Automatic annotation (TrEMBL):
Residue ranges, annotated region (Disordered): 1-23
PANTHER family assigned: COPPER-SENSING TRANSCRIPTIONAL REPRESSOR RICR, TRANSCRIPTIONAL REPRESSOR FRMR-RELATED
Family: Belongs to the CsoR family.
Record's keyword terms, sorted: Copper
UniProt xrefs under InterPro entries: Metal_Tscrpt_repr, Metal_Tscrpt_repr_sf
Organism in which the protein naturally occurs: Streptomyces olivaceiscleroticus
Protein name: Metal-sensitive transcriptional regulator
Length: 108
C-alpha cells in the first residue's frame, strides 16, 4: 500500500508490529535523540566550535542507526519469522521487503 506522499506501508494487520515488545525502549531512545538534536541547535546559535557540533551530529546519527538496527532486528524476529512460519506468499513478500530495506540502508 502506498500513501499520497509516496511512502510504502504494509496493509493493516491484526498482529502487533514486530517491535511491540520493545516499543517503550525504542521510544525512549528516540526521545533522547530528539533532545540531542535540540542540543545541537542550541550549540549553533552561540557559534560553538565546528568540530564540537560535528561530533554531536555524529553521535545523533549513530544513535538513530542503533534504533534502526533494533527495529530491523525486531522486524526479522517478529514479522518475517511469523510470515515464514504461516504463509509462504506473505513470507516471500516480507523477504523482498527486507531486501529492499537493506538496499536503502546500505545504499546499493
Amino acid at each position: 500500500m502506498t500513501t499520497a506522499a509516496g511512502q510504502r506501508h504494509a496493509p493493516e494487520h491484526p498482529q502487533a508490529p514486530g517491535y511491540a515488545g520493545h516499543k517503550a525502549d525504542h521510544l525512549a531512545r528516540l526521545h533522547k535523540i530528539e533532545g540531542q538534536i535540540r542540543g545541537i541547535s542550541r550549540m549553533v546559535t552561540p557559534d560553538r566550535y565546528c568540530i564540537d557540533v560535528l561530533t554531536q551530529i555524529s553521535a545523533a546519527n549513530r544513535a538513530l542507526q542503533e534504533v534502526a538496527l533494533g527495529l530491523l532486528d525486531d522486524h526479522v524476529r517478529g514479522c518475517v519469522t511469523n510470515a515464514a512460519r504461516t504463509d509462504p506468499t506473505q513470507a516471500e513478500e516480507k523477504f523482498a521487503e527486507l531486501t529492499a530495506s537493506l538496499r536503502r540502508a546500505l545504499r546499493v
